User: What shape does this take?
Amino acid sequence: MHTNPEISVVIPVYRAETILQELINQLNIALSSLKVSYEIVLVDDRSPDDSWAKMKALSNEYDVVKSFRLSRNFGQHPAIMAGLHQSKGNWVVVMDCDLQDQPHEIIKLYNKAQEGFEIVLAKRTARKDGLLKKISSKLFYKVFNFFAGVDINNEIGNFGIYQRKVIDSLFKLGDALVFFPLFIQWVGFKKTEISVDHASRHEGKSSYSFLALFRLAFNTIISFSDKPLRLFLNLGIVISFASFLGAIYILYRALNNEIEVMGYSSIFISICFFSGLIISFLGIIGIYLGKAFNQTKNRPIYIIDDVYHK
Assistant: This one.
């Protein structure tokens, strides 16, 4: 009778051709020391290098390595969801492929989970990223937390271990836009954090530029939260109240014959100001309508093109 492995390790792969061998070596050492059954699920997010060829070679060499290739570049978080759907483990580890998430830390995560926790998140207390990456990441989460109404620590990424029922609960969400840390925050369950060592990048640089982080934050906020709409509503109320007070003041001056002939410049500025506000309001509403329209299409968040394992 076939039984599910105890641990599945899900890894989205992008530009990792030269890293994968070392990654699998370290994973095998760490997971073998736990004396439990395991599988390693690699998902190629249509990497432009030869990552897929290397993944197939590793799957051919190791029975525990299962490789999946997406039909195009869908992004890191859809690739994670693809790997989660293919995983079979009672516990699922999600980690990046760049070896900044160190495989030996899985031992600590798994042992902590055995204390009765359903989610154990890895907290990177001493991040080895560059200064610009640290600043952009911190700014990203501050803005994101404010607008999305959540509290996600910028020292916590995707790396963690999750019980099977937690992973199964993610599949019920059905959002067209996927952001894994937010999903984990939203579903709840009994969770904790432990500090882990964070390594420098093995090579290369992050594929997340500041613009990419901004785009991810904006799209996720619009998809998950209505707070921008409520902020614009509040702004509109404040402006309306200020205009009402201004109208009373002008009426008072008119009754006292204090009004002088106003110039065209003030009228022009007022028209431009309020027209800009109206256009902004309509733009935000239009974006939400567009997101709702995309959600109704019910398109898959990823498409698997190829599968390779023994």
User: Anything to note?
Assistant: The mean pLDDT is 78. The CA atoms of residues 58 and 115 lie 33 Å apart. The chain is about 50% helix and 15% strand.
